[in-house]
Amino acid sequence: MAGSQSSLREANRARVVDAVKKHGGLTQVELTGATGLSPATVSVIVKELVAAEVVEVRNTVRSGRRAQLVTLAHRVGMVAGIVVGYRHLRVALADVAHEVLAEQVFPLPADHRSDTSLDRAALLIVDLLERVGSELDELLGIGLAVPAPIDPGTGMISVRGVLRNWDAVQIGQVLEKRLARPVFVDNDANLGAFAESTLGAGREWRDMIYVNVTHGVGAGIVVGGRLHRGADGTAGEIGHVQVDPAGRICGCGSRGCLDTVVGLPALLEPLRQSHGNLTLRDLVRLAADDDPGCREIVADAGARVGTVVAALATGLAPQIVVVGGDLAETGETFLGPVRDALRRRTVLNQTGGPEVVPAALGMRAEIMGAVALALENTDVFDRSDATDDGRPGR
Asked: Looking at domain 201-360, what is its CATH homologous superfamily?
């Protein structure tokens, strides 16, 4: 009987720690809702975890009232997040309360290779650890986001040609060999969805679609509060939905995918004669500055993306659609046509379709998702160090 009670206490403590780890910080009232435990049980567990230096408590204000915010103690270590983009590499160090301690962005050449990019990521992590005065053995884990579908069973890209020079690579294992730390890999839009659903605009909703529009288009799907990846990791790959049967050949091998219509080359090509050689950031800046040609290109892209997202929303009936990535930085120029397409095409929804909002984390959604992925897969404290009465050891 005593053993079963001890196991129950340990399970309840794990539920509290996991909830704090997932959200980065919760009040005790919020912990009660997140764990399903009684307020008295949560209060006792929080006191035990504070004594064991697993969590910290500080005063805060929620809804105009004073409350105590529970976060994980900084002493338990840190994690790294990595986002591999088509033309850049972003690396961040964060503590277990999701607070970024150091960050760096490094440009990448077109069609960069996996080995050189992962080498650079490893070097940047070591540099950032030195910058904050920490050692590699303090790093609990690494979350890695890539712009391609990842097979959950193998950790490899599941569709050839989507990210050139990265096919047939055990991405996580390669980086683990370089740093001797656990690495967890997922698609960038999935991790953007993960971050927005736990820390951002989708935090209050259980069913959400996150759309990331940068050099290409991808979506992350949250159903019942959980990220849905699909059997082979291809759930949400809306960039490879066919929108033009007579269109260009996509990197995936199909013809007329959405990526061939609203991907970066397709966006910039019509502007070359009038605007010269632009970059994606140039396009976003000029559209935000009311350049008529750039606004037209961005608005057209919003309409095309919105049509595909509307079809996805008709099947999934999400409560909210969160839009991130570079084109979302143009505000209503892009979001307005997306919203209009959902309003017109989600005809089965009597309320006019899900709300469409910009990502609360903005361009940081994917890096924060990579951090959250590492935290979710990392034990904050070693339960083998628990004392005989079930409390975590020190």
From this structure: ATPase, nucleotide binding domain (3.30.420.40)
3-state secondary structure of 212: strand
Q: What is the pLDDT of residues 283-320, one digit of tens each?
A: 999 999 999 999 999 999 999 999 999 999 999 999 99
Give per-residue burial for 141-170: e unless 16+ CB within 10 Å, then b.
bbbbbbbbbbbeeebbbbbeebbeebeebe
Give the model's pLDDT for residue 379. Answer: 67
- What six digits make up the tokens of 10? 């340990």
**Whole-number percent of the chain with pLDDT over 90:** 70
Whether 201-360 and 2-74 are alike in CATH topology: the answer is no
Q: At what angle do helices 332-345 and 280-288 cross, to 10 degrees?
A: 90
Q: Return the closest-CA partner of residue 108 out of 80, 81, 147, 160.
A: 147
- Here the contacts of 53-57 (C-beta below 8 Å, separation 24 or greater) are 53/394, 54/17, 54/380, 54/381, 54/392, 55/17, 55/20
- To which residue do tokens 């910290």 refer? 56
- Sign of torsion, CA 161 163 165 166? negative
CATH number of the 2-74 domain: 1.10.10.10
Confidence of residue 352 (pLDDT cuts 50, 70, 90): low
pLDDT tens digits, 249-258: 999 999 999 9
CA distance 182 to 364: 23
Residue type, 142: I
CA distance 195 to 200: 6
CATH 3.30.420.40 for domain 78-190, yes or no, is: yes
Q: Which two tokens stand for residue 219?
A: 């979506």
The contacts of residue 8 (CB under 8 Å, 6+ apart) are none
pTM over the 0.90 mark: no
**How far apart, in whole angstroms, are the C-alpha atoms of residue 286 and residue 292?**
9
Q: Do strands 355-358 and 320-324 pair parallel, antiparallel, or not at all (unpaired)?
A: parallel
- Write down the domain spans for the chain: 2-74, 78-190, 201-360
Cα angle: 378, vertex 183, 86; to 5 degrees: 130
* CA dihedral sign, ordered 7, 10, 11, 12: positive
